[in-house]
Amino acid sequence: MVLAPGERLFGSGQTFAHQDPNRDPWIVIEQFRTGQVPSPYLQPLTDLPGRVLARLVGPVAAYNVIVLATFPLSAAAAYLLARYILGSHLGAMVAGLAYAFLPFHVAHAAHHPHVAQTQWLPLYFLALWRCLDRPDLSRSLFLLASAAAVALSDFYAGLIAAVLSPVALVAYGVVSPRQRGERWRRVAITGLTLAAVPAAGLLLIHRVAPAVLLRPAAFAFPRSDLFLHSARWWSYLVPAVDHPLAGSRVRQWWAERGLEGALLEQQVGVGWSLLVLATVPLWLWLRGDRASPAVRSAPVPASVAAAALLCSLSPERRIGSVTFVRPSSLLYEVAPMFRAYARFGVAVGLMTTLLAGAGVTCLWQWRRFRGRLAAVLLLGLTALEYAPFPPWRWRDVLPTRAHRWLAGQSGFLRVLDCVPPFRLSDSLALPLLGHDVSLLGAPTFDDCGEPRLGDKLKVMGYTHVVVRRASTIGRWLAARPAPEGLARGPEFEDGWILEVKAERPRVYLSAWLGFDPREYEGDRTWRWMGQTGALQFVTTRESMGTLLEVELKAFPRARQVEWFLNGRRLGEMEVAAEWRRYELPLGALAPGETTLTLACRGPAIVANDFLHNDDPRALGLAVGSWRIDTGAPGRGGPHWR
C-alpha cells in the first residue's frame, strides 16, 4: 500500500466478492475528490480530513491514509484504555494490538472507511471511566470531546456509544471501590455531563438536517433488513471470510446459511484464543481472587460486552410459540435509519480484548512456567486466527491488470471497456487511466460481440478495446482468434487488450434497435428480436448497388419476413427455422444513416410456451453474422466491407 498509495486499495475484497467490492470505497473517494456529501450523511471527523488530504495527495491516496491510520490509532487508543483499567503494560499491549486487528476492523477497513474509525470508541470509554473516577472540569471536557468525536467520525459508532454508555456507567460504578454514596454521586455527575452530548446533537441535527427529526421514515430502512444485517451469536466464533487458511470453508459455510449477501456484517469473530484468555480474569473474580486491578475490573468489560452482543443480534427470535424481542427491535423504533446492528460487534471485540489483556496479565503474574507458557501459546494461536496481513491484503484501484497496462501508456488512447455501466466503481475509477475510456451503453455500443465491431470502432476513433476474462464476451473470446478488424494485444490473467486494426469502412452497422442482448453458443453469436427489429447503418462514402448478406433464423418455425429501408418496403422472404444466409439488396446508399427494418408476418411467440424453458421473451427472428457488398462509384465489381 505504501509503495503505490494512489493505485491500490486496502483489503482483498473477499467479503464483497459476489458484488462490486470497490463500490463503497469509490463513493467515498469521489466525495473526497469533489468535497460533496449528500445531506445528512456528512460525518465531518472522517470526511473533512479526507477532503484536505485529497487536495494534497490525491483522492485515492487520501482514502488510504484515512483507512490505514486507523490501525496504529486504534492500537494506541485501546492500549491507553487497557493500561488505565488493567494497570499492566503487557496486558495493554495485547489488548491494543488485538483490538487494532480485529476481523471487524480489518473487514470494514476494506470497504467502509467511516466504520473503520474504531480508534474513537476506546478513547470514549477511557474518558467516561476517568470522569467517573474523578469528575473534574478537565475530565468532563475530555469526555464531551471524545463523545463528539465518536459520533462525528461514524454515526454507527455514535449510536453504539449512546446505547452502551448507561451499561458502562452502572457497571463501573458498581465495581468502584469507593463508598456507595460517593460512588453513585460520581455516576450521577458523569451521567449529567454526558447528557449534554445528545442534547447538543439533537440541536445540531435540527439545524443542519431537520428532516431527520421531522420525517425519520424518509430515511428508514425496511425492518426486514435488520435480520440480514444483524449478527448471529455464532458469528463471534467463526474465522474471517478472507482468512488465508480457513477462508474458503468459511465462505461456503456462510453461503449454506443464505448469508453470502451480508458477509461483511458477519465479520465480528473475536477468536477462540482470545475468548479463552478472557475467561481467566472472570474465573478469578468469581473465585474471589480480586487483588489485581486486572481481575477487580473484569465485570465491567464483561457487562458491556454482553450488552453489545445482545444489541448486535436480530430484532426477534421465535422459539416454539414464544417470540423473544431483542434490543435492536426497540432501537429501530427510535432510529429507523440504522439497520446494521452487527456493528455493535466492535464493542464486543473491544471488551473481549480488554478481558484477554487481563487474562495475559494474570497468567504472566502467576510465577509458574506453565502459566507463562499458556499465555504464549494462546497469543500465538491468536496471531494464527487473526492472520491480519496475507500477501493479497490489497487490490488494485483499477478493475484489471489490463486497465493498469493502459494507464501506463503514453499518448492519447480512446478505449472501449466491454462491460455495461452497472458497477459504480467502474464509472468512477476509469478516469484514473488518463485516457478517454467508454463503457458499453445502448444504442452505439451495447455489446462487444457484434460482427465487424472493428469497423465502428475505427470510424469513432477508438484505438483499443479492453476485455475482462470474467465477462461473458471474455469467456467467449478466450479460445477464439481476435474478431475481424481487431488484433490481440497484451494479455493478463484477468483481461486482455484488443487493438483496433480495421480500415475505415464504407458502410458500418451503428445500432441494433429492438433486439435482446447477445447470446453465444460455440462459434456462433446472435441476437433475438420480437415481431420487428431494426439495424441502423451509416454510410461514410456513397455506395452503389449495396447488398447485405446476413444470417437469419426464425422461431419457432419458418416465417415470412418483410424488410424496409427507411420505411420503404423492399421485399419479402421466407426465413427457415435453422440458420441460413440471406441476401438483401439495399440499392444505392447516400452518405448518412440508413435504417433497415425487419418485420415478421404474425406475432412473436413466447419462448416458454413452445420450449417450456422458463424464458418469458417473445421471439420472432434471430440475426447472426453479416457483411455488406458495396459497389464503389466508378468501379466495377463488388467491394466487400
Describe the structure.
- With 641 residues, the chain is an alpha+beta fold.
- 44% of the residues lie in helices and 20% in strands.
- It contains 24 helices and 21 strands.
- Strands 10, 11, 12, 13, 14, 15, 16, 17, 20 and 21 form a ten-stranded antiparallel beta sheet that branches. A five-stranded mixed beta sheet has the order 6-5-7-9-8. Strands 1-4 form a two-stranded antiparallel sheet.
- Strand 2 and strand 3 form a beta hairpin.
- It is elongated and about 105 Å long.
Number of strands: 21
Quaternary structure annotation: single chain
Shape: elongated
Whole-number average pLDDT? Answer: 89
User: Biggest β-sheet: count, sense, barrel?
Assistant: 10 strands, antiparallel
Q: What is the count of helical runs?
A: 24
Which range best describes the helical content: under 10%, 10-25%, 25-40%, 40-55%, 55-70% or over 70%?
A: 40-55%
Output the radius of gyration. Answer: 32 Å
Helix/strand-derived category reads: alpha+beta
Approximately how much beta-strand content do the residues carry? Answer: 15-25%
Low-confidence stretches: 632-641
User: Termini distance?
Assistant: 50 Å
